[in-house]
Amino acid sequence: MIPATRSRVLNRLPSASLLAHVSSKLGRMPCQRFLSTAWLKDSARLTAPPTISRAMSTVKAGVMPDVVSKPLKADLDPSKLTITLTKTPKSPPPPEQLGFGAVMSDHMLVCEYNPESGWSAPSIQPYAPISLDPACAIFHYTPSVFEGMKAFVGPDGKPRLFRPDLNMARMERSTDRVSLPHFDKDALLVLIKKLVAVDAHWIPPMRGYSMYIRPTLIGTRASLSVASSTSALLYVILSPSGPYFPTGFKPISLISMWDTARTWPGGTGAYKLGINYTPCFKPQEEAYSKGYQQILWLLGDERRITEAGQMNFFAVVQRDDGDIDLITPPLDGTILPGVTRSSVLSLASSHSPTSPLPGLPPTQRIHAHERTITISELQAHHARGALLEAFGVGTAAIICPIDRIGYEGVDMVMPVNEGLGKVGKAMWDEIVAIQEGLKPSEWSVTCE
Ligand SMILES: *Cc1c(COP(=O)(O)O)cnc(C)c1O
């Protein structure tokens, strides 16, 4: 990094000292090459922070950027965190009254991005309404990114997160997809841990209970012009939640839909964006009115399965050789890359005679496949009695068994013993044990 000369790189021809510096780094004289895109990219990699290197990578060969003489933008900085505790703490409701998402804890994390100064000092402050200009982008073109993760209390009393690095990486990709200001994802994780630690007493210390964490990033540029929002508000709120299945596993029913799409090739279905959800509300009501709880989203002429409601879809199929196939659609841009999905795939591959998953025959292999599965393939497995289980997976339910899938007026009815099949149950047991700190794993991260 050579901060003193960085603005010059962007503004004008490189200074002699910068050229000397860069050429020594590159081991060659830039000479005539310094205006080429390749040179700009090389030098950006060596000297500029990510925001600037992005600007430079769009520079056409032989053209210098117009004016980028703004002061350096500050990134999210946990060392600048201020904590203001509420003077009127609420009492958490009795655990048995907790559903999902209705009750918020006492505090929230807030940080604003302003195009002139970058990210403000982050603040943990009393939970309260926010005030925004009615012209803000979020109210019109809806740039909105979110994440969903959970904190659990371990036997040591410490709150812990489950694979939060995957949530942060996904949030970074979602942010980029809607052109909102980037942020340091590791810094955000540090801040989230601090927030959870401040409100840790809101997590009921009982099995199955957790604190749902909702990091949110919205575009706040106060202008009706149709362009990316150069201002943003990042906040994180916490909602203590009860078990998804308070009285034992309850399988859900799905109705297949293909005339409306949750996602499509080239669309945004692989990102956690608010805009992906609203268009699903009406089809969801339709499903409900037909007597099904959620939708099995099919896509394309071949009617391939994408997701189950807002969960990733898995089918468990008996093989002729006695092993099991575990099939989920591939991350082809139409599928949300779920943390639970990724965990189920890893656990399936780890199942072996030496480290079997709970309740599964150690010698029976689970072959995990990320591949296209069409509704007619699913029907064929079902017709020959080989479809052992189908389930949706996601942070909220972890594993949600499916007992009925409606397609073209006919119901495929799945056998579900005790609510959840053997493979689903093994996954659920293993993931919950790791989340709640009962089984040591690098997937579980404590908040100090
Ligand atoms: C969040 C989400 C999932 C599940 O992702 P997890 O990281 O496992 O919670 C699956 N599908 C959609 C559409 C989602 O929004």
TrEMBL record:
PANTHER family: BRANCHED-CHAIN-AMINO-ACID AMINOTRANSFERASE, SUBGROUP IIII AMINOTRANSFERASE
Superkingdom of the organism of origin: Eukaryota
Species: Botryobasidium botryosum (strain FD-172 SS1)
UniProt record similarity statement: Belongs to the class-IV pyridoxal-phosphate-dependent aminotransferase family.
Annotated EC: 2.6.1.42
Enzyme kind, highest EC tier: transferase
GO biological process entries: L-leucine biosynthetic process; L-valine biosynthetic process
Names of required cofactors: pyridoxal 5'-phosphate
UniProt key word Amino-acid biosynthesis: yes
InterPro entries: Aminotrans_IV, Aminotrans_IV_CS, Aminotransferase-like, B_amino_transII, BCAT-like_C, BCAT-like_N, BCAT_family
Modified residue annotations for N6-(pyridoxal phosphate)lysine: K272
Keywords per UniProt: Amino-acid biosynthesis, Aminotransferase, Branched-chain amino acid biosynthesis, Pyridoxal phosphate, Transferase
Taxonomy of the source species: Eukaryota, Fungi, Dikarya, Basidiomycota, Agaricomycotina
Reaction equations catalysed: L-leucine + 2-oxoglutarate = 4-methyl-2-oxopentanoate + L-glutamate; L-valine + 2-oxoglutarate = 3-methyl-2-oxobutanoate + L-glutamate; L-isoleucine + 2-oxoglutarate = (S)-3-methyl-2-oxopentanoate + L-glutamate
GO molecular function: L-isoleucine-2-oxoglutarate transaminase activity; L-leucine-2-oxoglutarate transaminase activity; L-valine-2-oxoglutarate transaminase activity
GO cellular component entries: mitochondrion
Transferase is among the record's keywords: yes
Pfam family, one: Aminotran_4
Name under which the protein is recorded: Branched-chain-amino-acid aminotransferase
Coiled coil: none
SUPFAM superfamilies named in the record: D-aminoacid aminotransferase-like PLP-dependent enzymes (SSF56752)
